[in-house]
Design goal:
alpha/beta; 6 strands; about 35% helix; about 15% strand; IS5 family transposase; IS402-like_dom
Length: about 260
């Protein structure tokens, strides 16, 4: 394989961080995995390029075996657990939330039982990523819904259980439910009032400018072509893809 195919493989420093967290270690229940690093690099390659699994370069292993293992880790929640482990001591002085649309590729339609978390818009099928980001601009939680799902409907799920000092979001999140939930969690609400709100709320305009950090994370996520657009038929596979991209973002900072 050409060296250019390997340019985004995990670095030695990143692997030293990730390896102890992976299943298949000596002393753990089950078999010992000898190719964890090659497997992770293969999954990264697929999601970075957006290529079909059948086009996986053979240096990364047999595509069917790699794909099956990816789904097995997905079903066991391993990808999400890896991300949670990497999120070490997040900075929750500010918690920023937002959502972004992803076009759905035609290959993602037709899942068994019907399309999953996709909705039709003028431009075709669409899905949505809801994201929570900490003060350092690092992703800490993601939710997948259909594209027509209102951003504010998932806000409580994004912030539930997170002990943050300030909640930053655009005026699309200005609902009585979100405000009440944030205040009950002792969060300072930094959300502009909707224009039709009878009593306009005051908010910290200077602090609100920092909200662009969550938008930056969406840019990083969608640099991997396996995420923008959505190729995965199953919501669980697409959510795992987002988790894996977040893992790569955290590794790049931690290494």
């Amino acid at each position: 394989m050409e060296n250019s195919q390997h340019r985004h493989d995990i670095s030695d420093k990143a692997w030293a961080i990730l390896e102890p967290m992976l299943p298949g270690q000596r002393g753990q229940w089950g078999g010992i995995a000898e190719d964890n690093r090659r497997f992770i690099n293969g999954v990264f390659w697929i999601l970075r390029t957006g290529a079909p699994w059948r086009d996986l370069p053979p240096d990364y292993g047999k595509w069917g075996s790699v794909h099956q293992r990816f789904r097995r880790w997905r079903d066991k929640g391993i990808w999400e657990k890896l991300l949670e482990t990497l999120i070490d001591d997040p900075d929750y002085e500010w918690l920023m939330i937002d959502a972004s649309h992803c076009k759905v590729h035609p290959h993602a339609a037709g899942a068994k039982g019907g399309n999953q978390d996709m909705s039709r818009t003028k431009g075709g099928f669409n899905t949505k990523i809801h994201l929570a980001v900490d003060s350092s601009g690092m992703p800490v939680r993601a939710i997948i819904t259909e594209g027509t799902r209102s951003d504010c409907k998932e806000a409580v799920h994004l912030i539930d259980g997170i002990d943050a000092q300030n909640l930053l979001a655009d005026r699309g999140y200005d609902t009585s439910e979100i405000i009440a939930f944030a205040l009950s969690a002792v969060m300072n609400v930094v959300i502009p009032s909707k224009k039709d709100r009878k009593k306009q709320r005051e908010y910290d305009h200077h602090l609100y400018k920092i909200r662009h950090l969550v938008e930056n994370v969406f840019l990083w996520l969608k640099r991997w072509r396996g995420i923008a657009p959505r190729y995965a038929k199953n919501t669980s596979s697409f959510l795992s893809a987002v988790h894996i991209r977040c893992i790569a973002i955290w590794l790049a900072v931690l290494e």
